[in-house]
Structure prediction request, 386 residues.
Amino acid sequence: MNFDFTFYNPTIIHFGKNSLNALHEELKKYGQNVLLVYGGGSIKQIGVYDKVVKILNDERKNIFECSGITPNPKLTDMLRGVRMIEDHHIDLILAVGGGSVIDCAKGMSVSVGIKDPFKTLWLDQKEVTKNNVPVGSILTMVGTGSEFNGGSVITDEEHKIKIGRVFPSHVNPKFSILNPEFTYTVSEYQMVSGIFDIFSHLMEQYFSGQDDNVSDYLIEGLMKSLIVSTKKALINKEDYEARSNIMWAASLALNTLVGKGKEQDWEVHNIEHQLGAYTDCAHGMGLAAISVPYYRHIYKYGLDKFVRFAKNIWNVDSSNKTKEEIALAGIKALEDFIKESHMISHIKDLGATEEMLKDIAYSSAEWGGYKKLTHEEIYEILKEAY
Ligand code: NZQ
Ligand code: ZN
Prediction:
C-alpha cells in the first residue's frame, strides 16, 4: 500500500428487520429535544413516520419537525433546519430518509452558530468545531453511504453550485438504523440510481494507483456481490437477501474503509455534482450517464487496472485479445450492465440541454485519478454523454 492512514468510524450500525427497536436505547443517550428531519413524505406513506414518532413519544421526547428536504438538498432547507436547532435547543437531529435527508441533517449539525456556513465550511473548507449537534439516521433509500460517513453534499441553487465535503468522523451519524424492508417501496428508478451510486463509489476508489493493496480486493468483492444482487432485486424488489446485500454493500462502499491506503479518483462525482446543480437529476443516474464516456476517455492511462476490472468483475475472455481490447470489453460490459439495469445512459434524458454543457464542464472541479482532466476534456466527455 502506498499511503499511511488512520481509520476510525464511530457510527453504530443497527442492521436488519428488527433494527428499529434499537432506537429506544439510542434515544436514551440524548437530551429531550429531537429534530425529526425528513423529505417529501415517503416516510409517512410507508408507515415509518408513525413507528418513529411512537418510539419518540414512548421515550418522552419533545418532537420538532423539519420536513420537505428535497433530493439534492438545498442550502435554504439546511439553513431552515439550523434556525430550528437554535430556536428549540435541539439535542439530537434524527434524519429519516435517503442520502439527501441525512446529508442535510449533517449539514445542519455543523452549521449551528456559524456565519455563512456554506462559504465557510463547504467552499473554503474551514475546520469544523467539535461541538456539532449529534445526528442519528434511519435509512430508507440505499446508495450514498451517508449513513456511515461524514459526507454532506449541499446545493446552492442560486449560484448553481453543488458541493460535497467529507467532514471528520465526529460528524458521522452517531447511530444508523438500516432495515432493508424500509427500502422495498423505493421506485425502480431510484433503486437502480442508488445501485449505480454504490458501483460508482467503488469504481472511483478502484481506478487509481498502480500498487497491490487490500482495498482493491475488497472493492472487487463488493462489486461482484452488487452485480448478483442487482439482478435479483430487479426481478423481485422484495427479495430480502438481495436488498439486504445491496444495503450493506452501499454502507461498506463509502464508510472510507475500502479507499484506505490508496489513491482515489472522484472526477465522475465532481462532474455529476455540477450536472445535478444544473438539472436536479437523480445522483446515481447522472453518474451512470457520465461513467462510460469518462472511462473510455481515461482507460489508456491506467490500462492494467482496466484489464483487471474486465477480467475479475466481468469475466471477459482475454484469449487472443490485446490489453486495450480487454479493457474496452470491460467498459462495454459496464455499459451493458447500465442498460440491462434500466439506468440512464444519456444526460439529455436527465434534463441537460446542449447549452448547459459548457457551463457544467467549466464549473466542475479538475481532478482525476489516472488522468487529471482539463475543463475542455470534461466538456468533450459531457458531449459524449449527451
Ligand atoms: O423525499 P422523500 O419523500 O423521502 O422521497 C425520496 C426522494 O424523492 C425517495 N425515497 C426515499 N426513501 C424512500 C423513497 N421513496 C419511497 N420509499 C422509500 N423508502 O427517494 C428519492 C431520492 O432520495 P434521495 O435521498 O435524494 O436519494 P439518495 O439517497 O440517492 O441521495 C442523493 C444525495 O446524496 C448525495 C447526492 O449528491 C445527492 O445529493 N451524496 C451523498 C454522499 C455522502 N454523504 O457520502 C455521497 C454520494 O456520492 C452523493 O454525492
Ligand atoms: Zn455518489
